[in-house]
Write a structure and sequence with these properties.
single chain, mainly alpha, 10 helices, globular
């Protein structure tokens, strides 16, 4: 996978000042994970497709990694299979290191996807650490709060989730009451 990344990266124009890809990752998080219900719109999907197909999009290798991860998950679900945790972890580790290298920080979505990847493997403790680190950076992240609550059963977190986010899809999905 690293060799594929190197090939993609070598063809990518890297610019830490260009936030288009970072902003797309953040918006994906806001619309797909942080919102009470999925708020993905055709317009947003079109913006992602436009960025992917535009040869001038800077830092495109980061978007490719994110979309490769999403495609793997979607395909596994469509086929009724479990995603490959090794592939998920390797992809997220690459996305994490490459995003830090370009932007010096991580969007919340990377903490969430990395925690999910680690949690689907025997690396449960690493998943907990990733959630905790994500919450330090994004204390208002509902998905990170949900995963933290599921890990710790912290009553303060539970109360926050049921009081402030009772209709969030993850609170409902995990039956947090």
């Amino acid at each position: 996978m690293a060799s594929i990344l190197q090939k993609i990266k070598s063809q990518s124009k890297i610019d830490p000042q260009d936030k288009v890809v970072y902003d797309l990752m953040d918006e994906f998080y806001q619309k797909n994970l942080q919102a009470d219900n999925d708020e993905m719109t055709p317009e947003f999907t079109h913006r992602i497709q436009k960025a992917v197909s535009d040869p001038n999009t800077k830092n495109i290798h980061l978007l490719y990694l994110l979309l490769m991860y999403q495609q793997h998950i979607s395909q596994a679900v469509a086929e009724g299979k479990s995603p490959n945790p090794e592939f998920q972890i390797e992809t997220m580790n690459l996305l994490e290191s490459e995003t830090k290298e370009v932007y010096g920080k991580l969007p919340a979505i990377i903490y969430i996807f990395k925690a999910e990847a680690l949690d689907s493997s025997p690396k449960k403790e690493e998943a907990k650490i990733t959630v905790a680190n994500g919450l330090k950076e994004y204390p208002d992240s509902v998905p990170l709060k949900v995963y933290s609550y599921l890990n710790t059963k912290d009553e303060v977190l539970r109360q926050d989730l049921i009081k402030n986010h009772p209709n969030h899809w993850m609170v409902l999905q995990f039956g947090i009451k």
